[in-house]
Amino acid sequence: MSDTNTMNGSELLKKLRKLAKQKGVDVRIEKHHGKGSHATLYFGGKRTTIKDRKKELGVGLLNSMLKDLGIEKDEI
Q1: Rounded Cα–Cα distance for residues 73 and 76 (Å)
Q2: Which of 27, 39, 59, 60 could link 34 by a cystine bridge, Cβ 3.0 to 4.6 Å?
Q3: Number of domains the chain is built from
Q4: What is the pTM of this model?
């Protein structure tokens, strides 16, 4: 994925589910552990906060989320 590509939370979640299937780990979202439209996203044993899944994720936020989950940008 290049820095010029943008995606929303739903697109990221779709890519993470595909990656999780390849790696054999679980992906789940707990909506009640977030405030407002935010939720907690679990990828295997790691977690991050995901904002409104309909809105664009900025490059910095996306990088931070991937770092929290231990995923390299080129994996998605």
Answers
A1: 6
A2: 39
A3: 1
A4: 0.82
Q: What is the CATH number of the domain that holds 15?
A: 3.30.920.30
What's the domain range around 55?
7-71
Q: What is the per-residue DSSP string for 19-38?
A: HHHHHT--EEEEGGGSSTT-
Query: Which three-class secondary structure state does DSSP give residue 6?
Result: coil
Three-state SS for 41?
A: strand
In a domain, 2, yes or no: no
Per-residue pLDDT reduced to its tens digit, 2-36: 444 678 989 999 999 999 999 999 999 988 765 67
pLDDT in tens, 28-74: 998 876 567 788 999 999 999 988 888 899 999 999 999 999 999 99
Tokens (6 digits) for 74: 């080129």
